[in-house]
Design brief:
- The chain has about 550 residues and is α/β, with parallel strands linked by helices.
- It is built from 15 helices and eleven strands.
- Strands 7-6-5-8-9-11-10 form a seven-stranded mixed sheet, with helices on both faces.
- It catalyses: S-adenosyl 3-(methylsulfanyl)propylamine + putrescine = S-methyl-5'-thioadenosine + spermidine + H(+).
Length: about 550
């Protein structure tokens, strides 16, 4: 892919014909079309490699803004380096372009698998991410002067016209690659197979262009070397594609342990379910532990029961597709209706159908009081969630991923909490899962955002998070540094009372434990923090442990 910021090297191909006019097996017009078609295909492949690196790095390391910035900046820099290095190959542009495309197909096609293997077995991701961004960027940048030379050897034209033609083909190819990745390759093939297939297409397009259209420019030895190189690349990619399923299975076992019962890629995320037989059931979403059967009751009891003190006939749960928050809500006899807004329909179906998970949530989805809506929480609140256009809720429960995850930032913004407040009935309560008290800057930023939406807050936390069970951005940390608590905010239009309804049975949460958690989190208070908003998110660096 050619970046507009990269200048065409001075004294370069547009006006020079180092080898004279090319001898082609087709007319110059057809030859020129085929070169531009090659530019189109190579640009599409180049952008897919770029998006693969961003997506996989975001999945493995979190904080998609940082990962995208690293990949894009390193790759654009490397493209400039590659363009300069390729000046030495212009005298043998066809052979050079063929070698570059074979190398790009191999490196780009294998990049996702290598990055994932490094994370799983080597504990290293950032260095590999930079290395592959550099390598792919250098090879993409090397295409620029070589393609300019080849297209000029077919038919001379002014520099501006040649640049315009190449950029047009390049940008259209980038558009196709950019749309194919999220809507075709990722959902149908997954990240690993999608990258390998892209590498194969890249190798076939580059090899065919050189070995057929410009074969007269190659010596007999060069033709055999390029043919052998491309066959070796295609063979390697095919062999790896055949082993993707075994590779993914081995990687899942290395990450999640040997007791993986369910592993599926939904339209929203990767879902993995382990245990549930001899050991505790664990539910992972995009590699982050969201539910551990050994300690989830501490989290869900602390999330739900303080907010249920008072009127609770109508309850709204945002997230909570595992049904565990609904389990605690439905334990209260005064509940008449519960609306659960969960984006991922397949998580809800798993919570209904999996024997161990449905037993853990006590078949909550079979309760006629529970109504499920599959939608984005922000979008649903904005369109129908409350106020004059929607129902008013006595209790709103925000059971959403940690605020330190970039994808969750909008769900912890002042605007989101304003929409949640609009959904509250007079005297209604909002409870928010707000990370951990061990990350006070993130937690108190959530508090500032809730208060900026016009609500009064009472902070508290629940201890007993199992050692080594890391959720959200903590998965990059060792068990000694993982949080041992969950922190929450209880909010209402007037200062709410932090008390418990004694009727539902609770295994861990007591009034004494609740007030001890409130005192513990209060000791971490940071004054003067600004709220997080959609235009100024303040959680991006929540992945860095504080204190």
């Amino acid at each position: 892919m050619i970046e507009p910021s990269l200048p065409v090297p001075s004294g370069a191909p547009p006006t020079a014909e180092p080898q004279g006019a090319a001898v082609l097996p087709v007319s110059p017009r057809t030859g020129r079309f085929l070169v531009l078609a090659g530019v189109f295909i190579c640009a599409a492949c180049g952008l897919v490699y770029e998006l693969e690196l961003v997506a996989l790095a975001s999945y493995l390391m979190g904080d998609s803004v940082t990962q995208a910035s690293v990949v894009l900046s390193v790759m654009v820099f490397a493209m400039g380096v590659g363009s300069l290095l390729a000046k030495r190959l212009r005298c043998r542009a066809a052979a050079g372009f063929g070698a570059v495309e074979a190398a790009l197909a191999l490196v780009g096609g294998c990049s996702a698998m290598a990055l994932y293997a490094g994370f799983v077995w080597g504990g290293e991701t950032r260095a590999l991410l930079v290395a592959f961004s550099l390598a792919i960027g250098v090879l993409i940048g090397a295409e620029v002067p070589l393609l300019m030379t080849l297209i000029q050897r077919i038919r001379r034209q002014d520099a501006g016209g040649a640049v315009a033609d190449l950029f047009a083909a390049d940008y259209v190819g980038a558009l196709v690659g950019g749309l194919a990745f999220p809507f075709l390759l990722l959902p149908l093939l997954g990240q690993l197979t999608g990258a390998l297939l892209t590498g194969a297409i890249n190798a076939i397009a580059g090899g065919a262009l050189v070995l057929w259209l410009f074969r007269r420019d190659l010596t007999r030895r060069s033709r055999w070397l390029l043919l052998g190189a491309n066959l070796a690349v295609l063979g390697t990619l095919a062999a790896l594609a055949a082993e993707v399923e075994s590779f993914e299975k081995a990687a899942r076992h290395a990450v999640y342990g040997a007791d993986v019962r369910v592993a599926l890629q939904t339209d929203v995320q990767e879902v993995v379910l382990t245990g549930g037989g001899q050991g505790p059931l664990n539910l992972y979403l995009d590699g982050r532990l969201r539910v551990s059967g050994g300690d989830e009751h501490r989290y869900h009891e602390a999330l739900v029961h303080p907010a249920m003190r008072g009127p609770h006939a109508r309850v709204l749960i945002l997230g909570g597709g595992d049904g565990l928050a609904a389990r605690e809500v439905l334990a209260h006899s005064g509940v008449r209706r519960v609306d659960l807004v969960e984006l991922d329909a397949e998580v809800v179906e798993l919570a209904r159908s999996d024997a161990a998970l449905s037993a853990l949530n006590r078949q909550a989805f079979d309760d006629p009081r529970l109504h499920v809506v599959h939608d984005d929480a922000f979008r649903w609140l904005r369109s129908t969630g409350g106020g004059p256009r929607g129902p008013a809720y006595d209790v709103v429960i925000s059971d959403l991923p940690d605020p330190g995850i970039t994808e969750s930032t909008k769900l912890y913004s002042q605007e989101f909490f304003g929409l949640a407040a609009r959904a509250l009935a007079p005297g209604g309560r909002l409870v928010v899962h707000a990370g951990s008290a061990t990350r006070p800057r993130v937690f108190w930023t959530v508090d500032a955002s809730v208060r900026a939406a016009g609500l009064s807050t009472v902070p508290y936390c629940a201890q007993g998070r199992l050692a080594g069970f890391a959720a959200g951005p903590d998965r990059a940390l060792d068990s000694a540094r993982a949080p041992r608590d969950w922190a929450f905010l209880l909010a209402a239009r007037t200062p709410p009372a932090l008390t418990l309804d004694d009727r539902p049975a609770r295994r861990a949460l007591t009034p004494a434990a609740l007030h001890a958690g409130a005192r513990a989190v209060e000791r971490t208070r940071i004054q003067g923090l600004a709220p997080s908003t959609l235009v100024h998110p303040r959680y991006a660096h929540g992945v860095v442990p504080e204190g």
